[in-house]
């Protein structure tokens, strides 16, 4: 199954789970999640319509999927389907450019799109009373898209920045974005990457775009899925009104009929690339089309191979042998021949030869012997939990159904495959491994730093094979060129209907005798529950020279207790279908698990053990430290990530908020076991902890579980450690870190803000959303939409218990880094000089309210919000009060908050990129700019030197 699809298929007709964490292997059963209920019909013009009604949500999801993807890119136009996806958000005959955002984001919804090898999909979630307006808009852009030179040129520039960001600037970007597909295919156009190449993007013309739309964007090549709160009869009437009049063209839709021949001889490549902090190795094998009978067994195999910390790749490559910093796999199945991909980002000091040998060994194990009964059952339970989570929202269910239709030609394919997964045996897994995953059937890429290239030698070239079969686009006869309707003739979207009232969850709180708070939110729609334990403390309590110690302590909590080893913890919780995670925050820590609700009790046993009895074994500390050092090594080679770290240090200096939360190689290597146990003790005690249980659980059950598992937890003598008083923050600075050859520049503008409980928080949150919250925000308008300088530009406000920060960020090509800084700071200043117009303010409030509403639709979302309230010292009544507080913010309050808290004069600027391409204009605008080489940069120091 494809990367985006792996979680979509996992959800019905599987098995009951183990009664306790220590019980025998669970047995299979066919009773579980109900199949997705829907209605379907086909209009006379060929448009297939699917409706999934759910009156439990105030929202509705609208999705239009077109049966055209990057495999259909015309010859010499790789990346064309993806670029066209961008153009679909521009003008139509009746809609002005970007009006889709006005109809979605500005009313509290959102929209987006994606391009896959096999399809392009457009999806929105909006308040249910706006459904008619979205159906009107989707029909209008299907029938009458306007393509004109200005928007075409702008979006082409945006796509170039997306390519630089995802492929050229990010470590391993080329490996996954371009080399993987090129190495995997000799004949099929799947060999071309979805993002394409800058050269091919430059070659595209407006006539190409118009021909592409006329060829593929037609009702008989699309499906419409509507999921959520609607009246069925009214929905059908609206669909008939807007879509049925779209004509079905007479021309035949071109289809890719190429078949990729089986690979019978192993192929291998060795490449040397810049910006590669650690060597990597990737192997792929062909798998059949997603609709074929062997996909369920391959899905189970892939789950055993790399899902969770009890998976074979993690246990052997990452944990036991410490060969890899990261090792994983994914099943990328398609309409045609797909791939199973396994890869390893190697640990420091390890070689690609070691990584390749280990990957081959783990694949050979599937061929040589059956998987165990425990592995088989665990995989099916993990699949089940993932399936339930994917069906928590109307949008999730719509996506599952639409993917089944486009990829498999059957709206019931997901449910059918789930039933087949339930019947997969160990013999089936071994059979498909032998059939598809032989050594001779593999394609291998060894991906090394350019500094490792032997003198006088070049690496291999990975390019699209000349035997790959593509076809030129033959334009249909007489393509109509659509122009915007005159203002007097433009048909306006219909007015929204009466709003549908949201049903906000009601937390129930109690407290145990040991001081532990217990908060429950009961939701019984699906058999799933999230347990989320939070404690105040966190990274602000880390010693000055031990940054990263709280993060390291959190990661070690799941790596051994007084009664369970790290492997036992992973295997036991994953046998329940869940995964346990522990983490640190600036002002706290968390431990969480999500499982099927009938497994909540055994999952809580493990969570409580992890939270209260970690042992921090020396060998586990050494292992976790090495992994974190490697993770930091990778992160600091990403311009965007490094710019964020530099901005934090420049803004907060010697304050704990300035130190890298994940540590640095120097600070991590200095940490002792005593440091780790002290960090744990500063945060984890019952009188500063809260257990949050959300999902299919009652308050009485929640309290009983808390008493049974955490009631005996006792706080040590003495008061909790208080954070040190915050000193004055340093004067703002402009810092450049020179990263020669960087594919893009990471740009961050940051300044101190306010704690979450400050009464100015809501005016600041609204101001920030005007400035940089969402696609229609001022920053994105100036940087992306008007100028095409970045794939996106945004800003955010973080408010904690003690302090907060404002951050604006983007990534742009190196020569425009200085220009982008000027644009960001100018917009920050403008926010404080004039009131935001009421109409603009209303749309930005809707963004906040809509994001909040969608978050509380899932158990994990509710748990996360309540956990942040606990850590930030905000009352639980905020859950009910949030919308009203946002709506009450006035233009004057926004201007006042912006003048005080968004003034760019108090902001530091961090740019990481190829400095020679932007330093001259930057210094002209900001003469006090300080420039550091990567070698000079010292994140441990408040001065960065």
Model description:
With 945 residues, this protein is of the alpha+beta class. The protein has 31 helices and 23 strands. Strands 1-2-6-3-5-4 form a 6-stranded mixed beta sheet, with helices on both faces.
Which SSEs are present, and which pair or pack?
Layout: E1 39-42, E2 48-53, E3 59-66, H1 80-87, H2 99-103, E4 110-115, E5 120-127, H3 131-143, H4 149-169, H5 173-184, H6 198-203, H7 206-216, E6 222-228, H8 232-243, E7 267-273, E8 280-287, H9 295-306, H10 312-320, E9 324-332, E10 338-346, H11 352-368, H12 373-390, H13 394-408, H14 413-422, H15 426-436, E11 442-449, E12 508-511, E13 517-522, E14 528-536, H16 549-557, H17 566-575, E15 580-585, E16 588-596, H18 600-612, H19 618-635, H20 639-652, H21 665-670, H22 673-683, E17 689-695, H23 699-710, E18 734-738, E19 745-752, H24 761-772, H25 778-785, E20 790-799, E21 804-812, H26 817-831, H27 838-855, H28 859-872, H29 878-887, H30 891-901, E22 908-913, H31 919-925, E23 930-933
Helix pairs in contact: 1-4, 3-8, 4-5, 9-12, 9-14, 9-15, 10-11, 11-15, 16-22, 18-23, 24-27, 24-30, 25-26, 26-31, 27-29
Structure characteristics:
945 residues; alpha+beta; 31 helices; 23 strands; 39% helix
Average pLDDT figure:
93
Low-confidence spans: 1-31
What is the molecular shape? globular
In percent, how much strand structure appears in the residues?
Answer: 15-25%
Secondary-structure-based class equals alpha+beta
Distance between the termini: 48 Å
What kind of sheet is the major sheet? 6 strands, mixed
Number of DSSP helices?
A: 31
Q: Measured on Cα atoms, how large is the radius of gyration?
A: 27 Å
Q: How many strand elements?
A: 23
The percentage helix is 25-40%
Strands of the widest sheet, in order across it, are 1-2-6-3-5-4
